[in-house]
Amino acid sequence: MAIDCPCVFDLESPIRGNRLTDATRNLDDRRVAAKLIFSDDRLFPSDPATREIARGLYNQVAGLPIISPHGHVDPRLLLDDEPFPDPAELLIVKDHYVTRLLHASGIPLESLNVGKSTGADPRAIWRHFAENWHLFAGTASGYWLTHVFATLFDFEVEPSAETADSLYDQIVARIEQPDFRPRALFDRFGIEFLATTDDPLDDLAPHRALAADPSFTGRVTPTFRPDAYLDPTAPGFAERAERLTAVVGRPADDFAGYLEALESRRAYFVENGAVSADHGVVEPYTVDLSDDDAAALYARAVAGTLDPAGAREFRGNMLLRMAGMSASDGLVMTIHPGVSRNHSSSAFSRFGPDTGHDIPIQTEYTANLRPMLERYGLTPDLHIVLFAVDETVYSREVAPLAGFYPSLFIGAPWWFLDAPDAVLRFRQAVTETAGFYRSAGFIDDTRAYLSIPARHDMARRLDSAFLARLVREGRVSEERAASIAVDLVDALPRKVFKL
């Protein structure tokens, strides 16, 4: 049977016909500089009519302040307000999204000064990155970096072997300018609220100094992150417990003193402006234990004799007790499970944690959270935000749970899912069950300071695109879509994080 194909093939095209062989033959030649593409309509729908609606919605939120309730920027960056270091340290070394993909393509982590490694020349690190810029095509990292290059450094061409040195020098000249200091960029980025992530025993001196500095008008608050103090399998747990209980003058094996010390440190964080307590767990398992049973597990944990099953029970009970403390002191509880940390033992021993080899695993919320929700799920003014790296859990569990329990809110796509296509899939997964108003707004979760506006701008564009489709399909009015777009950026994060 003949097939009527209207396709027309250009045999002189670089990707078809006679020239395909040439294109393939030159696959490894990346020295040719290409123009940096940074469209005003990036991430908007390709359909012209829908794109026009998305553009109009985006224009109503583009200039709104950034509210960043979860991230990893060091507060000393803003306190010291020193010029940024070299381009490699600024843009590559601390960004594990970038270094992990370079490493996967054959560049040793020690050549990138990752983690414990030092000594690599910053210009050489930048050259490694520039020569391999093609690796980031289509990735979230490539998108964010393009935003940074275009808006902050005025790049007109992409990084490449050919342009590496000139672009490096261009960045160096820019970061030496007074208007490129961290505080100046804080104002330029339009950041109104920035939360850091902090150890329970941190003295929070940088936060207090910033709050007392009349020349700094932003709001930077700590976040209580107790994971290493709640997990008996964490390296140094017994030593941490001893330092923690010393805060209230109790011995390390005193469970009541341990709980009192946690409450005391949470109160200290609240006094210093904290609005949330963050919990990064492998699984969101919770279990309701009596004080006596929990104390027995704790004593064995401090003594180093607790078996894996007992460690799981202790972790699960402490996650439940953290919800109880949030119900009491008002700290928003954020839970982000489902990551196997330090997957490569060799890389961990050589370079340390947070060096690019944390890998997502499957997450289950419904059964795991039920003991906690039975105890606290209907508590007035308790806010718990659920994040996930497992996409399947959004429609199956997170949205239905948040669609019933007033204490639960849907966290934004996080970590490996804070990417353009994943964000759209997230909206599709949760909206039909829980709507827009059970979500908590966007979080950037970044150590890369310069990428904060890029990530928030991405979220605003994608939400505008999603809403524009609903308008075109006759599912919401354009006026309603506009109010939702604004609320996603402003009202919802303020409400959920009690700002």
How many DSSP E strands?
9
Q: What CATH architecture label of the largest domain applies?
A: Alpha-Beta Barrel
Radius of gyration, Cα only, in angstroms? 24 Å
Number of domains: 2
Strand content: 5-15%
Class per helix and strand makeup: mainly alpha
Write the CATH homologous superfamily of the largest domain. Answer: Metal-dependent hydrolases
Strands of the widest sheet, in order across it, are 4-5-8-9
Spans of at least 5 consecutive residues whose pLDDT stays below 50 are 1-25
Distance between the termini: 67 Å
Put simply, the count of helices is: 22
What is the CATH top level name of the largest domain? Alpha Beta
Main sheet: strands, sense, barrel? 4 strands, parallel
Helix content: 40-55%
Q: Which fold does the CATH topology of the largest domain refer to?
A: TIM Barrel
Whole-number average pLDDT? Answer: 93
Shape: globular
Write the layout of secondary structure elements.
Layout: H1 20-25, H2 48-61, E1 66-68, H3 75-80, H4 87-93, H5 96-104, H6 122-131, H7 140-152, H8 164-175, H9 182-189, E2 191-195, H10 205-212, E3 219-221, H11 227-230, H12 237-246, H13 255-271, E4 276-279, H14 291-303, H15 308-329, E5 332-335, E6 339-340, H16 345-351, E7 359-360, H17 366-376, E8 384-386, H18 392-402, E9 408-410, H19 420-434, H20 452-472, H21 478-489, H22 491-496
Helix pairs in contact: 2-20, 2-21, 4-6, 12-13, 14-15, 15-17, 18-19, 19-20, 20-21
